[in-house]
Amino acid sequence: MTLSFRSDVFADAAEIRRKVFMEEQGFQNEFDAVDEDPRTIHLTAYDEGELVGCARIFPSDMEPGLETAPGRWVFGRLAVLPSRRGKGMGSRILAEAEQLARQSGAAEMHLHAQCYAQPLYAKAGYVAYGPVEFDEHVEHQWMEKRLST
């Protein structure tokens, strides 16, 4: 497995998100204004040139309801194609996103995790906070991590 990343191909990220979140998981409201903001970084992952996953990161002032602070960024929309899961790609995409966020001035990362996926984030050092709440039909909870420099 040779994983490579790009941070400039929203069309590829949108393709993965449609397949995973809309077709597989049944979400209706997958795309929002954050996707169109030039401060958003859309990360795409390729295994030997084949598109396999994606995520996005952005400054916290773009997330409604999240307290804004200097250096606070938000990670989200992590998706890996079903045929590529269980091979550590999600963790590698998360690590790459954290590195890009650090380079953009992030000191901490927050994410609104699907509850079933929390072990992936906990393994990477994220800690849950706040209540469990529904995003459409799926339980989510906020998690956070201080990013080392």
TrEMBL record:
Gene3D superfamilies, per database record: 3.40.630.30
InterPro entries in UniProt: Acyl_CoA_acyltransferase (IPR016181), Bact_Acetyltransf (IPR050832), GNAT_dom (IPR000182)
CDD domains referenced in this protein's UniProt entry, alphabetically: NAT_SF
GO MF entry, a single one: acyltransferase activity, transferring groups other than amino-acyl groups
Domain called N-acetyltransferase: residue spans: 1-148
Name this protein carries in UniProt: GNAT family N-acetyltransferase
Keywords, in A-Z order: Acyltransferase, Transferase
Source taxon at top rank: Bacteria
Pfam families (alphabetical): Acetyltransf_10 (PF13673)
